[in-house]
Amino acid sequence: MVSNNSGDGMNVLVLQGGGALGSYQGGVVQAAFEAENHVDWVAGVSIGAINSALVAGNPIPRRVERIRAFWDLVSSGPELPWQPTDGLHAAINEFSAALVTVTGVSGFFQHHFPPRALYGAGLPGPISYYDTSPLRETLLKLVDFDLINSKQTRLSVGAVDVETGNVVYFDNFKETIRPEHIMASGALPPGFPPVEIDGRHYWDGGLVSNTPLQYVLDCAVDEDMSILQVDLFPSRGPMPATMDEASVREKDIRYSSRTRLNTDMQVDLHRSKEAIRRLLQKLPPELRDDPDVKHLAERSKEPAIAVLQLIYRSRPYESSAKDYEFSRTTMLEHWTAGLADAQRSLDHPDWKNRKRHERGIAVYDLTRPGGQ
């Protein structure tokens, strides 16, 4: 992700799902804005879809303001005036997460009335614990859907068809985007209900793939790309020593969506295409028009893609409830972490001095020890 005047092709922002952790992405967007980075395309899943809509659905000068307005709305409680110990911090976070399950989140979701629990097992009623109609009103207030559908910035959000189990991407370059498309991407069961769009029902895209990177790469046929990928769950982590740590690690693995595997596969594919191109250059001229050779030449084409990964790494006091712990203090911690990680990565010599226009994919993770 670089300046719009750099000539590096398309600049893409890829946002993973992760509930309350999504405020980390707000800090990243702020850092990109302050560095005068331009976004041509933003793709997201779940909370990443909401943040994506806030980016694509607002003019550049208002994007950070609107994302911050959303996170101020959905977070609650006072900011702690001091830094508590890890043990006390963990207790406060657990209480905050438990409170969310009882009260819901302002501007996001609320209990059905009457509550789902009153219907009893097997009885007709809502097929979710919460009602997400407040989110629709919030989106209409903070997102300009006419701007989204003007296609000034490409927007893609992933959801899952409830009946087929297939991933579907709603894309403003292909269809008109409404609040329901954003809500569908974040409709994680059993907490949230499926969202109906044109007679089909959709759940959260994170059920199948929590990271929209593969969709973006699949679309990368000819144009070079600089991709800023913001993940909220690390695929790597230490061996857990307690039940709580095991629960955290399980959720991280489940929702990291094999991010590292996907990028490693793309690197291997690049090496294969390089080998094909070298082999084709060795063929005698009389074979250049052979249909099989032409097919391989076409399939070996690839643009230059640079992926800058930013991965939120949990604090020791965060539990498996970290994705639904919406306290104001935690929101600000996540936002500040995203801002710092993005500033450091965007200004890192390895990113600023990377080789440009070199075909294939190069992946940079500059926030962890060891760098790339």
In short:
With 372 residues, this protein is an alpha/beta fold.
Strand content: 15-25%
Spans of at least 5 consecutive residues whose pLDDT stays below 50 are 1-6
Number of strands: 11
Distance between the termini: 16 Å
The proportion of residues forming helix, as a percent range, comes to 40-55%
Structure overview:
The chain is built from 13 helices and eleven strands. The chain has helices at residues 23-34, 47-56, 63-74, 86-103, 133-142, 145-149, 179-185, 213-219, 243-255, 259-281, 291-299, 328-346, 349-352, and strands at residues 10-15, 41-45, 110-111, 130-131, 154-161, 167-171, 195-197, 200-204, 225-231, 304-311, 360-365. Strands 1, 2, 5, 6, 7, 8, 9, 10 and 11 form a nine-stranded mixed sheet that branches.
